[in-house]
Amino acid sequence: MAEDDRRKKKKKKKKSKRRAENGDDVEAGDALPIESGEAEFASSAYTPDGGELHGSAEVAALMPTDEDLIPAPIEEPDMGEAGGQEFNEDGLAVAMAVDAGDEDEYIYAAIEYDPDSKPPLHKNRRFRVYTCIALIVVVAVVGVVVVYVTKSAKGTQINDQFIAATPEPTRSPTKSPVTDREQAGIIEQIEAGVLQRGANFSVIERDDPRFLALDWILHYDQMQLESDDVNLYQRYVLALLAFNLESVEWFNCGRHMNIGPNGTENFVNEDCIFDNPSTGQKEDFKIWLSSTDECDWFGVICSSDGVVRGLELIGNELIGQIPPEISQLRFLQYLALNGNCLHGTIPAEFGTMPNLLSLELQGNGLSGEVPNEIYSASKLQLLNVAMQFQYAYTCKREDGSQVNTLYAGGDPANGYNWGLQGQILGPEVATWRSMKGLHIFSNSFDGTIADEIGDLKYLVFLRAQNNAIAGMIPSPITRLSKLRELMLGKNEIYSDLPPDIGNMEDLEDLRVTENEMFGGIPNSLYQLKKLKKLWLEDTLKCEEIRDEKSGNLTGYDCDMSSEYGFDGPISSEIGNLSRLSHLIINNNPLTGTVPSEIGQCEALSVLHMHQTKITGTIPDDLCLLRDKNLNSESGTGILYADCRPNNRTEDPFVSCSCCSDCCDHTTQVCVADD
């Protein structure tokens, strides 16, 4: 029994030590309180084989069922054997030492515990918390993904629509699905900043060049410019020009190639080689509407910062009307579209281009009046709108039909094109104070030349022949000291030459052919030492034609005769004109003889003085010029005079031994006599 007591004490000390190590408040030697239906285990327990268990287990008290009322059968231990159960005087069980061999059997069946067993997962509180957190994270991630995908695909969503059946299909095209590019602000940007005259894409037809250019910018151009790109406007305008002027039929760099080594599709990079006729060199460009920098396209001129400063598409078979949106090339300085098949009117929006210096539209089929807004282009230095009337040039459309600039709109069914009309040299010209070149010939311009023409102090060229300009040549025109060419022939001018014409010290070419000119040649004219060409021939005499009933002017009946026009003699001061190469004075009633000083005009190569009243003998000084420039290797006549018998039987007006052609003054028949 002593040995048993020692074992009990030792066992109690071990238990007490473990409780102390685990922070238990139960004192050593005290028995664990056990209430009915409940068992507690220390937070740090040990397995029967000495292993340590972490955590705690608690069996909650349960209401007894019918089965619980019957106690579980427990095998009664042998009280007489060592290790049996003992009770104290209070009736409580006292822990007894257990032999190692009996330890496996000394377990209460009601509280058997498997150290490897675990509670079910759904009853584990930590598992429940982690599960809830995971579900929240998953829901949040799914929500973010859904929002992102919705935003990314918002341009490709197609809304279901219920469309009522109609007896016949509608003529309006079906709307294409909206893409993200169409909702990126590009349409609104171009609509607000480029389109003119109140246009907007919502009402523009799908085959309109303005819409085709937009569609290319949005969906086909690989550059994929955004709404805030600085080059968006200029790239759209150039694309519009390509679609509007049928670039696929351009002579140079307009058609995309789908075959060959440079063949590509879908508006991607394409090369173009241009044979420059002026230099004889081959030059590399890119085809229009290729997905390259627009500054590399043929005929596009850009500054170092990539801004379009010029367009040069001369003789490239452009067909169509000039779109007003071209005015939104705000930094454009040079525009040359001459020698093509353009028709329609000149856009008034040209007047809003603040940097435009040179506008060349000659050799097309334009018509209508030049808009007054054009005078607002105050920096303009060159305006060339010549050759719109009686100019025939044919271009071929993509569908195989032809356009001829001789006719209105290029179509013979519309009748002849009369070119540009209205008064262009009115008082408004004073706003062109930087103007250097005015080329307006071969049109139907009318009205008079305003005195304000004299304010264009930098004007060098004034070519206004072959129009319907009337009235006098204003004397202020003589203030144009830098003017080199004054061409007013074939108009309805009724005038003499201004007496102060000698003030135009740079004048090289003076032509007033086929007008109602009168008076003598001013003496100051012989002071024009730079004068090379003087064309005063074929002066007219016109009579007004009026309607018999209304009395309104309907036209003029003009007659060309040597009885009307410039009169008086040729001054001996003509020798001052040492650079004079062309002197054409035929069909004028000039009188006197040919002065010998004309021999000082050593540059003279063409002299027409037939159908005049000049008489006498051609001086030898003039004949000596035949051995210099007054000859022609082609054999054509260059020295004309009335040296044939007049009216076949009378003495000739002039005696000439060196004339290339002699004319009959009366019958106006000229025969080569060289």
Give a verbal description of the structure.
- By secondary structure, the protein is α/β, with parallel strands linked by helices.
- Helices cover 13% and strands 18% of the residues.
- The protein is built from six helices and 38 strands.
- A 15-stranded mixed beta sheet has the order 7-8-10-12-15-19-21-23-25-28-32-33-35-37-38, with no helix packed on it.
- A hairpin with a 6-residue loop joins strand 5 and strand 6 (282-286).
- Helix 4 crosses helix 5.
- The longest helix is centred in the first third of the chain and has 28 residues, at 125-152.
- It is elongated, with a radius of gyration of 54 Å.
- The chain starts with a helix and ends with a strand.
Helix count equals 6
Strand content: 15-25%
Largest sheet: 15 strands, mixed
**Would you count the extended β strands for me?**
38
What is the molecular shape? elongated
Average of pLDDT: 81
Query: Low-confidence segments, ≥5 residues, pLDDT <50?
Result: 6-87, 100-115, 153-175, 259-263
Q: Please state the structural category.
A: alpha/beta
Q: Numbering strands along the chain, what is their spatial order in the largest sheet?
A: 7-8-10-12-15-19-21-23-25-28-32-33-35-37-38
Task: Give a quick summary of the entry.
By secondary structure, this protein is an alpha/beta fold.
Please give a handful of descriptors for the protein shown:
6 helices, three-stranded parallel β-sheet, alpha/beta, 13% helix, 674 residues
